[in-house]
Amino acid sequence: MSNLDHGKFTRVTTLFHSLLGLDVFLLFFTGYAIMFNDELWWMLTLMGGASGVTAIHRITGIGLVALVVFWITLQLISSTGRSNFSKIIPGKEDIDAFIQDIQFVLGRADERHPSARQFAGYKADEVPLLSYIGKGVVAIFSIELTLLAISGLLIWSKTGLAAMFQTKAAAMAFVTFHGLLGVIMLMGVMFHIFEHGMHPAFYPVETKAFIPRSMVPEHHDDDEEPDTTGIERLSLSPSWRTVSTVFGAMTVIGIVSVLIGSIFDEGYPVPRELAIGGGPSSILLTVGINLGMVVLGVGLVLSMYGNVLRIRWEQQLERDERPAAADGGEPQTDGGQPEGRQKLRIA
Amino acid sequence: MTTEEDLPDVNGYSRVSVLVSAVVGLAVAALAVVWAQGFRIGYESLYRVNPSVEGGGIGSDWVFGNTIPALDFLIALIHAADVIMGAFILVMVFIHWAAFQRLAGQMRDPGEDVSEAVAADGGSPARGEGQGGDGA
Q1: CA A222 to chain centre
Q2: Distance (Å) from the C-alpha of residue A113 to the closest C-alpha of chain B?
Q3: Pick from B48, B133, B70, B17: which is nearest to A233 by CA?
Q4: Distance CA A44, CA A51 (A)
Q5: Are residues A191 and B89 in contact, defined by beta-carbon separation less than 8 angstroms?
Q6: Domain range holding B122?
């Protein structure tokens, strides 16, 4: 069974995803090193102190503006982008998919809804461009990135901020607002990393977002309607149980900790009401927020690993095509193929 | 073999549209830098004045904290949004965690012997994964 499954994204989309991911990770590391400076002091020091961190944050922030405007323009001026627009709007099938996911977990449904399925296997044709989670991610991240970019630019422009807020404390409260705004995305990205890194069929990374559709072979050599996705033919990785349990726990602890931290650590550098100290800071919260950063770090590594897989896959495709052209024969389909080159549909 | 042409929603983007979008993106980013960086007239140095000066003066507004009700409301609102979305995201993590456990239960255990099944159809295993045709 192919580990590539049902790639549906274009090369531009996969490259955009990687660049956006890298940029957002850097924004998180720098932005939350400032906001959670009590807990992430080492990160602040590592990136050159306050001036180093804010410099990296501004450079990557401008990178974010460039990427977001690039993507919006591309979606507007290209027919592919315009035709895809309806496919990212949540609909009734997405609510059904959410409900069926709960039923699946409770054992009341035999399989996940097509709009929830990450591993499509034989049923790849039934699966939409984005799952219900994918649509939610696009919607939330679009709103968040737009608001964060605008508020970030306002903060950067001291005159812009001073024109809006006459007192320095109010201006700093706006900085707090900017930081709190990103917390939803911070938690969402942790879930995103867990969802696409720990699926048992794709562990350690789902390659759909890294290997474009044009490089994924699809076989339609029978007209039979498949009964199952074919996941029962896959072997579980020996390390999956341990790693997914540890990483799942880290994801939950990371999300809970940054959420608690955002409630109590809002006062950087000036609280809404002037108070001594920056809220409760405990070892548990420090450990938890640091675990959250480790989850993000794993996401960054997995994103790079996804691109390494794409490059290796490209090289493998080139190697496979060369001997086939030389002797005119069919490429080998059994035993001599790379893992991902196995038939998507097993006849 | 399905070609991309059969699936209009996954057709690639043309080089021209990618290029135009890249130019627009970079231009807007450059303008944003000019806007954010271009009009600074020494507010930084004003902000460095020690706010603890007795009897007010420059920096005395630190004492009052944020006094803009709209901003106060925005921060309270975003706190609420963070908590609600955080709880929802946690629910999604748990649902997926549990779903992954169930999916893993449907898969073959690591190192599970598939040699008998392979013998049934006369094939040979490909790394013991996904091949062998033993069916479910």
Answers
A1: 35
A2: 12
A3: B133
A4: 10
A5: yes
A6: 66-136
Distance CA A119, CA A231 (A): 8
Non-local (6+) Cβ contacts of A290 within 8 A are: A39, A40
Instruction: Name chain A contacts of B7, Cβ cutoff 8 Å.
Output: 8, 213
> Is residue B58 in a domain?
no
Answer whether residue B48 is part of any domain: no
Choose the closest CB to A73 out of B25, B61, B103: B25
Amino acid (1-letter code) at residue B43: Y
Residue B110 included in any domain: yes
Residue type, A145: L
Distance of CA B55 to the CA centre of its chain: 48
Mean predicted lDDT score pLDDT of chain B? 69
Q: What is the pLDDT of residues A209-237, one digit of tens each?
A: 888 887 876 655 555 667 778 888 889 99
Sequence-ordered list of residues with C-beta below 8 angstroms from that of B14, at least 6 positions apart, any chain? A78
Residue of B nearest to A167 (CA): B61
Region of residue A337 (left: phi > 0; alpha: psi -120 to 50; beta: else): beta
Closest alpha carbon within chain B to A160 = B36
In contact, B38 and A153? CB cutoff 8 Å: no
Q: Dihedral sign for Cα A290, A291, A292, A295, please.
A: positive
Structural domains counted in chain B: 1
pLDDT for the residue A124 = 74
Res A341: pLDDT: 36
Domain assignment of residue B11, yes or no: no
Nearest-by-Cβ selection for A70 from B14, B24, B41:
B24
Residue A235 β-bridge partners = B108
Peptide bond into A204 cis (omega under 30): yes
Residue A346 has pLDDT above 60, yes or no: no
Q: Tell whether the model's pLDDT for residue A165 goes beyond 50.
A: yes
Task: List the one residue out of A13, A238, A217, A240 whose CA is nearest residue A124.
Answer: A217
- pLDDT tens per residue across span A4-22: 566 678 889 999 999 999 9
Give the separation between CA A103 and CA A108, rounded to whole angstroms. 5
Alpha carbon of A46: minimum distance to chain B alpha carbons (Å): 24
Q: pLDDT digit string (tens) for A251-278?
A: 999 999 999 988 876 654 444 444 433 4
Domains annotated for chain A, with CATH where assigned, are 11-325+334-341 (1.20.950.20)
The nearest CA of chain B is from the CA of A236 a distance in Å of 5
The identity of residue B122, as a single letter, is G
Q: Whole-model pTM?
A: 0.79
Residues 6+ apart with CB under 8 A from B53: B59, B60
Cis before residue B51, ω within 30 degrees of 0?
no
Confidence of residue A283 (pLDDT cuts 50, 70, 90): confident
